[in-house]
Amino acid sequence: MSTQAKAWLPKLAVVASFFCPFFSSAQDVHHSDISGVAMGMLLFLVSSGFSLIFGFMSVLNMAHGALFAWGAYIGFSAFTLINKWTGWGGSDRSS
Question: 87: alpha, beta or left, given left = phi > 0 and alpha = psi -120 to 50?
Fold first, then answer.
């Protein structure tokens, strides 16, 4: 890729992200914003825990990813169970 094309790529990404909400509903845009912020916070927690452990103890502790996956599984299971009891999560496909 030429250097001139590399210079235009960030500008094109900014313009595309500006016009993207006009092609979808406001609910989709808000859902994407909230999902992006939530995922960013989760990744920050994992990475800050990893960097703190490595910084203080100088040990590469790779258990953070496993704990993150375990917590995601427990959270998904809890949400599924609560959805079966209350129906808050939308339609229930099992019936």
Answer: left
Q: Are 82 and 90 in contact (CB under 8 A)?
A: no
Q: What is the mean pLDDT of residues 43-71?
A: 84
- 0.85 surpassed by pTM: no
Tokens 């809890």, located at residue? 78
Residues 46/65, Cβ–Cβ less than 8 Å: yes
DSSP helix/strand/coil, 62? coil
HSE-CB at 92 with a 13 A cutoff on CA atoms is: 12
Calpha distance 47→59 (Å, rounded) = 14
